[in-house]
Amino acid sequence: MEKIVIVTGANSGIGLALCERLLTEDSQLRLCLACRNMQRAEAARSALLTCHTNASVDLLHLDVGSVQSVLTAAQEVKARYSKIDFLYLNAGIMPNPQVDIRAFIKGLFSRNVINMFATAEGLLTQQDTLNSDGLQEVFATNLFGHFLMIRELEPLLCQTGHTSRVVWTSSSNARRSAFNIEDMQHRNGTEPYSSSKYASDMLSLALNRHKNSQGLFSSVICPGLVMTNLTYGILPSFFWNIIMPIMWLIRIFTNTFTLTPYNGAEALHWLFLQKPESLDARAKYHSLKSGLGTNYTQPRPMDVDDEMSEVLYKKLLKLEIVVRRQLSEKNADNQAHQQYLNETK
Ligand SMILES: NC(=O)C1=CN([C@@H]2O[C@H](COP(=O)(O)OP(=O)(O)OC[C@H]3O[C@@H](n4cnc5c(N)ncnc54)[C@H](OP(=O)(O)O)[C@@H]3O)[C@@H](O)[C@H]2O)C=CC1
Ligand SMILES: CC(C)=CCC[C@@H](C)[C@H]1CC[C@H]2C3=C(CC[C@]12C)[C@@]1(C)CCC(=O)C[C@@H]1CC3
Questions:
Q1: Residue 171 beta carbon below 6 angstroms from any ligand 2 atom
Q2: Residue 14 belongs to a domain with what CATH number?
Q3: Total structural domains in the chain?
Q4: d(CA 15, CA 262)
Q5: Would 329 be classed as within a structural domain?
Q6: For the chain, which terminus, N or C, has the lower number of CB atoms within 10 Å?
Q7: Which residues are catalytic?
Q8: Which segments cross the bilayer (predicted)?
Q9: Does residue 30 lie within any of the structural domains?
Q10: What is the residue with the minimal CA distance to atom 8 of ligand 1?
């Protein structure tokens, strides 16, 4: 039977590279590109079909940062498919990034230099905003929208006799110290990206605890440092081009500089080939590239604990109730307003 695979944020970067690799792996696949920008999604679909002429590639409109869009997209998925084999939760944003140049220079001469290049610890801050649902945008996009998607798709993801997988594209930038359980949306800090990625690591752990018995397995990956729209948003492309030889050099010391989307998608592809029972729920699977140019996947322990992941899971369930209520009130208001307009006409 054909495998159904949904990839969020599939129109560029690591998501698109993953789609390409999956179609090369399994030509019978039914692939669904879940994207917010349908023009870019169409372009991605055409590019994939150029190399894989007979492939089944569907498009789904999804703005994972909008509650209404997630609910509508999930309805559409339930209407189209009777099961989901893989749901890759890859869409992600890092708005208004700022590199702390002084910390970078200081880091260059410290013993922590390799770790600094691998994780960007102490180097990066972002400016976050509120979205139209009243949620912090980074939290909503990188974490909550995906959580809501899973919740909506539970009838397909948790079926007796069938195993489904969700895979989170996390980051080496995920850090416990950037996350505060009392402020899970990171309203008050300057590292919303790091916080949201750490939250996804914990959520994956909680999902495994709650859903493995219902056939749903969750994994977390880190793609390494990859040249994509996201990284070109941190520093301009000419700068990255100038320092490219240095980056190749750094790769000898930290294999996390995967650099191309193809390499970055290594762990996502590798997980597609693994049996879920063989995976470690507490591990993050890293895409790595050695100095000699070999791609490989390596599990590394995550800094997560059961207790905090459970608190986060409960808080997300509570927030889900709140946003659903707010949305139905908003929709009822809109309907009443529309009716009033019709009547006065
Ligand atoms: N590049 C890197 O070095 C690293 C990246 N990552 C993670 O990898 C993932 C992919 O990023 P990457 O390929 O690098 O960057 P890209 O910017 O190329 O890809 C991000 C994708 O997410 C989509 N997206 C963003 N916001 C939304 C939204 N609200 N709804 C639906 N789709 C959305 C983008 O679509 P659109 O075209 O509409 O913007 C795009 O397709 C992210 O989760 C990122 O955090 C992790 C570690 C390192
Ligand atoms: C000489 C050289 C390589 C300079 C670049 C310095 C920094 C801009 C990078 C060093 C480590 C990088 C890094 C990321 C962004 C760019 C750096 C800070 C990420 C945060 C990008 C997104 C992620 O999810 C993880 C990356 C970790 C490493």
A1: yes
A2: 3.40.50.720
A3: 1
A4: 9
A5: no
A6: C
A7: 193
A8: 230-250
A9: yes
A10: 169
100 touches 119 (CB < 8 A)? no
Q: Quick check: is 50 in a domain? A: yes
Nearest CA to ligand 2 atom 24: 171
Strand partners, 127: none
Q: How far away, in angstroms, is 120 Cα from ligand 2 center?
A: 5
User: Ligand 1: which of 7, 16, 18, 36 to mutate, most ligand atoms within 8 Å of CB?
Assistant: 36
Print the domain residue range for 30: 4-319
The model's pTM is 0.97
Nearest ligand to the CA of 228 is: 1
Q: Specify the residue for token string 């000419």.
A: 238
Is residue 334 assigned to a domain? no
Q: What is the torsion angle, in degrees rounded to the nearest 10, for the CA atoms of residue 154, residue 157, residue 162 and residue 168?
A: -140
* Residue 287 backbone phi and psi in degrees, to 5: -75, 125
pLDDT in tens, the chain (345 residues): 899 999 999 999 999 999 999 999 999 999 999 999 999 999 999 999 999 999 999 999 999 999 999 999 999 999 999 999 999 999 999 999 999 999 999 999 999 999 999 999 999 999 999 999 999 999 999 999 999 999 999 999 999 999 999 999 999 999 999 999 999 999 999 999 999 999 999 999 999 999 999 999 999 999 999 999 999 999 999 999 999 999 999 999 999 999 999 999 999 999 999 999 999 999 999 999 998 999 999 999 999 999 999 999 999 999 999 999 999 998 888 888 888 888 887
